Amino acid sequence: MKKITLAVLAGISAICLACGIAACSFGESGPQGPQDETGAQGSQGEKDPQGPQDEPAEEESGELTIRFPELGNGNAGDCILIKVGDTEMLIDAGSKRGSAKTLVPFIKQYCTDGILEYVVATHAHEDHIAAFVGSSGTDGIFANFQCKTIIDYAMKNTTSQVSKDYERLRDEEVSVTAGAVHYTALQCWNNADGAQRSYELAEGVSFDILYQKFYENKSSDENNYSVCLLLKQGENNFLFTGDLEEAGEKSLVEKNDLPHVKLFKGGHHGSPTSSNEVLLSKITPENVCVCCCAGSTEYTTTKENTFPSQAFIDRVAKYTKNIYVTTMSTGSGYASMNGDITVTSNAEGVTVAGSNNDTILKETDWFKSNRTWPSYGVV
To answer: Is the pLDDT of residue 56 over 80?
Structure first.
C-alpha cells in the first residue's frame, strides 16, 4: 500500500480518536529467546485485525491517552500509542512483522491525519521494531504513516535482518522526499545536531529523553541500549524504559531525578531481570501496564519466569496492586487478558481501562492459578 498523501488526508473528516524479545534475554547471562527474522507467524498464530466495533469517543480538550494494543499474536512485544489533541506519538511496534496487520488499522482509528509526529524505537530487538517493517503481505508502520521525528537507540549489537530492514526504512523516511528527521537518544540528551532533550506534544504535555550510560557504553545485553523517556502532563508522570535491565536501571536512577509516576510501562514485559527495586523505589508507580502474553513459554518453560514473572510481581506488589496485562496464553493459543489497555489522563485524574475487562492482574483466574501475591503486597 502506498503512503497516503497529505493532500488526500486534508479531505478526510477526523471523527475517530482515541508498548527482542525475539532475541530478548533474561539478563546478561540468561537464556535467549528464539528469533523469527522472517516475520513468520508465532507458534501460537496471529489473529486478524477486527477493527473498531464502535467509533472511538471524542477526546476532551487537554486529555492525554496512552494505549497499549494487543499485537495480533501470542508473542511478547511492545507498542504504545500516545495521543493528545491532534498529536500522536508511537513508542515501539512489535512483536512480529505480521503484527502490522493488527497495528496499522488500530493506529488509524486514532491517527486520522496519517501523521505520527513522534516515533521512538527503544532498541533493535524484533519484538520492538518488526511492525515498523511489516511483512511480504502487509506493509508496516513506515509505509502507512508519515513520520516526522524519529528517535531511536544510540548503540546496538545485533546484526539481525529485521534491524537492518528497520534502519533502511527509517532512513527512507528521512529522505528529502519523505522529510522526517532522525536522532539517537544520545543526540537528544546532548541537544546535539538539532535534537532536543525535551519535546512538547501540546500545551502542558511534553516528554523528556532520559540519560542512561548504555547510550554510549557497550553492553552484552541488547536490552540495556533501550531509549528511556518520561512523559509529563502537569503533576502526572509516565515512565517508559523499553527492556532496560538492572544495570541500565541503576544508571537511569543515578543520572536522573526521577519522580513518582502515575504509570510505569513494566520493564522487559515483566521479566524477572527487569523492574528492579533500585528503580521501583524511586518512581513508586501507581499503575503498571505489561505488554506480554501471560504464561507463554516463548522464552522459558520455567513457570515462575514466564511473563509476567513471579519475581516481577513480588517487586511491584510492594508499591501497587494495579497491574494490567494485554494478552494471555491459553496453552493452545492466546486470548485477551485486559485486551487493548487505555490509560487516560485529564483534569479528573488518571484512569485505566481494558477493551476486554478492567480486572487487575491479581484478581484474574490466570493469576490465581499461576502466581502468588506476596503477604506484604498492597491490598
So the answer is: no
